[in-house]
Structures are given as C-alpha cells and as structure tokens.
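Customer escalation, tier 2.

The customer says the design service returned an amino acid string that "doesn't look like it belongs to this structure." They asked us to rerun it and document both sides in this ticket. The original structure tokens are below, unchanged.
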C-alpha cells in the first residue's frame, strides 16, 4: 500500500459514496418506513476514513442536480443514466444534514460537476504545499495522481499513488485521459473506440506513447479495430474534453473553511433518534454523559480538586470503564528514575475532567505501605487501552512515558496531544515548557513540586519510597493539570493553521520515532576512546608547558582571572572587548582574533578545545555505556531550540566537532554490531537550497536545478568570471558570503573571516546582491514582515517569535533581524529532517527492514543496517529523505556506509 503523509487534506467524492453505499447495502428502513441504508453506509465510510487518517481539513463534495458545461459540449452526456430511485432521493437531504452535524464541511455548486470541484481543490492544496487524499471510486481521478495527490477507494480501501495507478490501469496518471478517451465510459454515455477495451488501449499507448500519436498514426493500425479507430477519429478530441477533469473552478470556500468542526452533539442526537441509528446513538450518549463517580478511596482535596487513589480490583474495573468511555484521557506515570532504561514504574494517574483525577499506585514499597494492585496484572489489563490508537491520550512529555512503558512490552499508541509540545509550538522562544512553569503561566496555579514529596539533594528519595498519602495528590495533580493545560492551549493552537500543522504532522508523530532511537542507542568502542584520552592527556600537558614557556610564568590555564592578568597586564596584548564588569575579555571570539597575531591565545584555544573533548567525550562516553545493552543512549529534546531543531544530552551528540582531526577520531569510535554496517545520510547544503526556494532568486534556482557547485556559481557571479575560471580562493570567499549572509554576517564579520579590508568585503556583499536580487528582496521583505507580525515562519508554518525586533537597544534589534533571516532556513531544515525521520521510520516498520535509526545529528541521519541489505537500503533512504518536502530545487542527500560513523559520513 502507498504511504500517505501524516494529516492529509481529505476530499470525499460524496456522490461516489452515495451510489456505492446504496448498491452495496441491503435496503434499510426505520420504523416509520423511511429509507436509511445509503445514509448509514455513507456515514459509516466517513467515520472510518476520519478514524484512519485523522485529518484536520476535510470536505465532502456532491454533484448538483443541474447540467454542466459537458452537457453543452455533448447533449447525450450521461443520457443513458437511469433516474435516481425515490428511495435514494429521499435520503439525500438528511444525509447532508447529518454530514454537517458531524462537523464536516459540505460543498455543492450549481452548474458544476463534483469531479471538477475536487480537481480544483486538490490542485489548490498542492500549490500550497499540502498533500491531498481523494476518497472516491471514480477512475477519472487517476489523472490527478502525483507525489502530492493520492486516491483511496471507497470500498476496497486501496490507496493509489503513481505506481498504484500504473499497476491498476497499465498507464501512468498523465496518460489516463488518453486511456479513458479510447475506452469510453458507458456510465457517462461517452462512446469509446468500438471493440477497444483496457488491454488494447494500454497496448496502443505503450506502442505510440500518447493519444495524439495514435491519432496521427491511425493508418498503421490494421484490421477491424483499426477501422473502428479511424471511425472514432472525429469524436476522440471531444472524448478528451469530456473525461478531463477541470482544475480551474471558481470556488468561494477557502481552505480555512474546510476545517473539521466539533460535532453538534444535540443535532446528532436528534438525527440518530429519527433515523434510528441505535449503536451510534448509544455511543454518543456515553460521550455526553459525565464520567461515572468511582467508588474509590478519596485521599485529599486540594483547592477543590478531587484527587483519589485506587487500591482494589473493583475500583480498577470502574477505572477501566471510565477510560473506555472517555473521548480524551490525560495520562501520566511515576517512576524511580529519569533514565528511561533504568526507570521502574511506580504508579499511573488519569484525568478525564478538570479538577478530578485518580492515582493508581503499583509499586510503593516503603515499610508499612498499603497493599496495592500487582504491577504486571495492572499493565496486562491496561495494555489494550494503552495500545489502542483510537483511545486518545494527552500527556506532558509523553516520549518519556512511551519509553518506560516499552520496557514492559507496551507500545503506547493514541498519543493525540502533548502539552509540552503544544506550548513549544505556540511559542518556541519561551525558555521553559515544563509542567510547573506552564501551570503558573496559563492557569495561575502553583503545583506540588517533586521536591515537596521526595525531598532535596542527598536526602531525596525515589518515588517508590514516598508515602502514598503524599504521592497521590502530587501524581494525580500532574494528570489534572495536564488536562487543564491542554484545554487552555489547544484552542490557541487550533486558531493557527501553520503551528497546528507542525504540531500534528511533525511533533506528535515524531514522539515514537525518537523514543525508539533513544532506546536503541549506539555501540561505542570504549578501548579506542580510552586510547584517545591518553593521547589527549599528553597533548594537553605539552600545551600547558608551551603556554608557561611563552608567558614566562607558571599559571592555571583554566583560570580566566589568571589568563586575564597574563594576557593584558604581563604581556600587554590589546584589549579587544570587555566583560559587562569592565574587565578585558578572555572569551573565545576575542582569543580567536588575538591568535592571528599572538602565540599564547592560539595555545589557549587549542587547550580549551582538547580539554573539552577529553572531559565531554573521550573520558565520559565509556562511562555512559549502559551495562544492560552495552550501548550509549542519548536523550533527544523536542522543546528546547527556538528554531525547531532537535537537541541531545547525556551525551550531546550534536556538538562532536567534525572539522578537527580529534573530533573525527571520536566518530571513529561509534561502531556497529557484527554483521551490520553504519550508514550515514546527510542533506547537502540544505539551508542554501531552502534560501533558493524562499527567495525564488533565478540564479540560485538555476544553479541548484542544474546541479552546479553553488559556491563556484556564486563566485562566478560576484567576481564576474566564467564558471570554469573560478579559483579556489574565489570559491572560498563565495562560500563565506553564501553562508555568512544567511546568518546575517556584516561586512566587518566577512572581512575578519576572509582576512581582507572591510571596504573590499562590502564590495563583495554589494556585488552579491546585484547578482542575486531575489535574495536581497527576500531578506528585506522578511525583515519588514517580521517587524509587522512579530514573527517569521518556516515553509510548513512553524513560527519563531522575535520580540526584540523593535527593541530600542540596537544590538538586540540587530540580533533579532539576523535571526529573522536565518530562522526560516534553519527551521525549515529542522522540519524537513523531522519529516524524513517519520517517513523513514514508517518504511522500516512497514517493510520490517533489518535496520534501525540510531542517531540524528543536525542534517544527518545515522543507521545501523544488516550488511547484506546495505546496497538496496541506501537508495530508498535517499529517496525518502530527498522527497520529505518538495521545494523549488531538489534536495540532495549524500550517503555512505562503513564500520564506523566517521568513515560512513
């Protein structure tokens, strides 16, 4: 089956649904004799479609009663169709009413065929960068299929992508019109070539390439079928007009009006009662009813919040009933550790209504702890609900919960919402997105802190040792506040289509992907790292001696104060920059500038770099190997960076240097298991490609589309030389300009980087903007719009708020302007690799590939792949990554494999 991108725009061919439901189901009537079978069938298919794809935007399109332009072209169009039977006609009005009561947009346009409305909507969505799924049984729509538009059959549930169209019809989507014109369509009274069926049509199109070629070379086709073709030549052009769906219909309904609304429960209840759809009526009533009051022990009321605990099987059965009936459950777990591989489950908490929650303890084992339900028994009973994708859950940092539950053989599904990610997507520049901070900010509520129940510092105890009377209010409050936060944040997010799309299509689907990567981990050659540590220790000692020799005095290289005295008092080096307290700075940028003229700053820089490598990686990584798995497991964070990029910690894999020899040696120690290979796939110049897409600069677009070295092409433009005459120095300068301007580099910064005069650097920049006017316009427009709106957006709609754009402080304002230029590129790159991770993970699971994603570092994905399948694995990874998002220029992915990360990269 074809892979459909997450959260597609869904268009339903309502007329196709109606006739298929009517003919597929036996006649149904309510007690008043009103036909209801077609209504039931259509609604059943719609509910199934929504449950499977969970779209945020959807529309159901029906044909109008009156004639269309095709009747003007051809009076006999659809002339042989039988009149709609009365028992179907009377079902249309209540069906339309029921569709709207479900919150689904409905579209009918007089004088316009549903096919043309659907084609127009699909093409509009594609132009906006959206994926579209058309649900229909009509073969005409196969002509629309491409990498952004898919079909799903209303009855068989088969999904057609381009390959699926070829497999089904024998011709690609662009030849479907020719195919249909040849075979005709009896249901629309379109006469094809007599005696020409699908096989002959495919055979001709394979032989001649197109209908036009078939018409031009009709004389070459002999026999009776050749004579029939010659007879058909006069009406084949009309056939083409009749079977071609029009994609330029003037539709008043905008995309924002095709958002799924909340069902109108009272209206639904009335309609279900009238139509006597008893099962749906019962389900609806269960949703409307208030959750049952559980006969469980109440532990503590805090600020009118009813928090309760479950200690008996009877109470647990009532909890299960509550969970099954609830539309959405706030869910949280308590454990013994933040390390997901070591954490033991202690309890679970649930909330289905604000200010109420329950705590289910399963492993408090302090002396005198009350008898609790057995943890394994509880998890066995809860597993069907926890693994039910239709049982929607909301949590705060559900990646952690999913990872811990995976240790117990439970695959958490139904992750509908995560309040940490809701907060992050709404405003990523907020420093903290933890539950305690958000509760205070949005709910004006001060939560019970972990330290309040478990203690602080050396005296802190693990949660299994916390008295249940104390633990329950804390744990239950987490679930309650999570639900309340969601109820506050989700309406804010729903009103912003771009951020909402980021949340639903990227951040939520990424949760299980990251959980799997973290739990998988990566194998480390600790012996190699220990040897490198020893080598670094020797070099650090040597650098220390060199520093003492150059300074003429022994001092502590790690002491900024002593270094300050040596550099500025003893050696009288120029003061380039001062600290906020007025002291001469010893920060890295200052030392880098001083190192161009003086030896000691260069020694200090190398010493600091190697010292950090040693303490952070070569010494620390062997200590971080998990005793159970024998691998190192990083933690990825979705809600930290402002631009949407992932960050990692314990260890931080994003900061291992790649441009230094010592940094590359560390990557040599990242190895694979026997029988496997490390595969590294990396986007090439992705941010520059995004710049080309956003700016639509002609020169940049041509360079990337023609696969020209973009830095060499830039040099040719800026320095006014032929492409093949660009020198290495000119290319180096162009590269600095390309990346520097993207990060808001000034003429002063470029001059310092290239070692040239400031005026010369300014001339380079001026020449660049003359040659690449689209980039200049994009940068100017972005600054202007950012100041007007207060934020910038990525291609997919992720927002970065920049409150300092209008700051009085010039330095703050300039920094915000630089961020405004760079954030759309960095953010879009982050969005693209997240999409790629989701698509790759889907493929690995769907095809049961003996490979695993083990790292994500900047624009790179790293895999551990069974040796025998590496060659066939790599092209598919390149394809999935390069097609993660379609831009105006191709996304290129470099890929390689080896026994370690460094040699694979």
């Amino acid at each position: 089956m074809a892979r459909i991108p997450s959260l597609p725009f869904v268009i339903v061919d309502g007329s196709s649904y109606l006739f298929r439901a009517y003919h597929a189901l036996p006649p149904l009537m309510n007690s008043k004799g009103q036909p209801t079978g077609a209504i039931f069938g259509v609604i059943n298919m719609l509910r199934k479609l929504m449950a499977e794809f969970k779209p945020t935007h959807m529309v159901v399109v029906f044909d109008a009663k009156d004639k269309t332009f095709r009747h003007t072209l051809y009076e006999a169009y659809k002339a042989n169709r039988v009149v709609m039977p009365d028992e179907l006609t009377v079902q249309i009005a209540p069906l339309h009413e029921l569709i709207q009561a479900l919150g689904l947009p409905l579209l009918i346009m007089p004088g316009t065929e549903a096919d043309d409305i659907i084609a127009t909507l699909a093409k509009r969505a594609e132009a906006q960068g959206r994926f579209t799924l058309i649900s229909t049984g009509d073969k005409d729509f196969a002509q629309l299929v491409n990498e952004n538009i898919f079909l799903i059959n209303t009855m068989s549930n088969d999904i057609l992508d381009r390959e699926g169209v070829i497999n089904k019809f024998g011709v690609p989507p662009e030849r479907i019109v020719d195919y249909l014109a040849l075979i005709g369509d009896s249901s629309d009274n379109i006469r094809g070539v007599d005696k020409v069926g699908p096989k002959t049509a495919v055979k001709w199109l394979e032989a001649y390439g197109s209908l036009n070629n078939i018409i031009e070379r009709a004389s070459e086709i002999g026999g009776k079928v050749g004579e029939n073709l010659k007879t058909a030549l006069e009406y084949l052009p009309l056939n083409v007009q009749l079977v071609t769906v029009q994609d330029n219909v003037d539709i008043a309904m905008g995309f924002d009006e095709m958002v799924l609304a909340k069902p109108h429960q009272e209206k639904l209840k009335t309609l279900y009662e009238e139509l006597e759809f008893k099962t749906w009526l019962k389900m609806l009533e269960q949703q409307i009813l208030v959750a049952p009051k559980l006969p469980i022990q109440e532990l503590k009321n805090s600020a009118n919040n009813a928090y309760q605990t479950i200690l008996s099987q009877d109470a647990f059965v009532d909890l299960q009933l509550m969970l099954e009936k609830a539309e959405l459950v706030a869910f949280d777990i308590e454990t013994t550790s933040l390390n997901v591989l070591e954490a033991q489950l202690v309890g679970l908490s649930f909330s289905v209504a604000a200010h109420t929650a329950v705590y289910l303890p399963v492993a408090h084992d302090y002396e005198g702890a009350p008898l609790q339900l057995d943890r394994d028994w509880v998890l066995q009973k809860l597993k069907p609900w926890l693994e039910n994708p239709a049982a929607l859950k909301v949590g705060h940092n559900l990646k952690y919960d999913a990872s811990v539950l995976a240790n117990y053989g439970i695959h958490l599904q139904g992750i509908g919402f995560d309040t940490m990610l809701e907060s992050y997507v709404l405003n990523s520049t907020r420093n903290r997105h933890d539950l305690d901070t958000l509760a205070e900010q949005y709910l004006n509520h001060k939560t019970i802190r972990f330290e309040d129940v478990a203690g602080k510092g050396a005296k802190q105890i693990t949660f299994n040792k916390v008295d249940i009377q104390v633990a329950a209010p804390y744990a239950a409050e987490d679930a309650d506040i999570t639900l309340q936060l969601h109820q506050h944040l989700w309406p804010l997010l729903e009103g912003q289509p771009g951020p909402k799309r980021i949340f639903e299509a990227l951040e939520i689907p990424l949760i299980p992907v990251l959980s799997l990567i973290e739990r998988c981990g990566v194998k480390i050659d600790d012996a190699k790292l220990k040897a490198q540590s020893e080598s670094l220790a020797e070099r650090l000692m040597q650098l220390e001696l060199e520093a003492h020799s150059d300074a003429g005095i022994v001092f502590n290289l790690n002491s900024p104060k002593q270094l300050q005295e040596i550099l500025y008092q003893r050696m009288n080096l120029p003061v380039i920059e001062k600290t906020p307290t007025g002291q001469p700075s010893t920060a890295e940028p200052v030392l880098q500038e001083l190192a161009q003229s003086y030896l000691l700053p260069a020694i200090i820089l190398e010493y600091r770099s190697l010292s950090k490598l040693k303490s952070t990686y070569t010494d620390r990584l062997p200590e971080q190997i998990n005793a159970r798995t024998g691998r190192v497991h990083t933690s990825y964070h979705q809600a930290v960076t402002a631009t949407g990029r992932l960050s990692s910690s314990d260890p931080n894999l994003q900061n291992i240097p790649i441009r230094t020899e010592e940094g590359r040696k560390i990557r040599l120690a990242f190895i694979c298991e026997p029988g496997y290979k490390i595969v590294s796939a990396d986007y090439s110049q992705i941010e520059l490609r995004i710049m080309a897409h956003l700016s639509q600069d002609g020169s940049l677009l041509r360079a990337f589309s023609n696969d020209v070295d973009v830095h060499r092409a830039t040099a040719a433009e800026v320095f006014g030389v032929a492409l093949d005459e660009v020198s290495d120095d000119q290319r180096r300068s162009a590269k600095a300009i390309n990346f520097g301007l993207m990060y808001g580099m000034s003429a002063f910064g470029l001059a310092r980087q290239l070692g040239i005069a400031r005026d010369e650097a300014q001339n380079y920049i001026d020449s660049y903007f003359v040659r690449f006017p689209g980039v200049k316009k994009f940068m100017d427009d972005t600054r202007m719009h950012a100041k007007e709106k207060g934020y910038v957006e990525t291609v997919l709609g992720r927002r970065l708020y920049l409150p300092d754009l209008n700051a009085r402080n010039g330095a703050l304002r300039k920094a915000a302007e630089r961020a405004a230029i760079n954030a759309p590129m960095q953010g879009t790159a982050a969005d693209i690799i997240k999409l790629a991770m989701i698509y790759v993970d889907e493929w690995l699971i769907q095809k049961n590939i003996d490979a695993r994603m083990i790292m994500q570092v900047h624009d790179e994905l790293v895999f551990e792949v069974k040796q025998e399948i590496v060659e066939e694995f790599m092209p598919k990874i390149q394809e999935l990554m390069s097609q993660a998002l379609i831009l105006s220029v191709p996304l290129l992915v470099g890929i390689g494999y080896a026994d370690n990360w460094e040699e694979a990269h």
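Tier 2 assessment: The sequence is consistent with the input. The chain has 37 helices and 23 strands. The longest helix spans residues 810-846. Sent an explanation to the customer and offered a walkthrough call.
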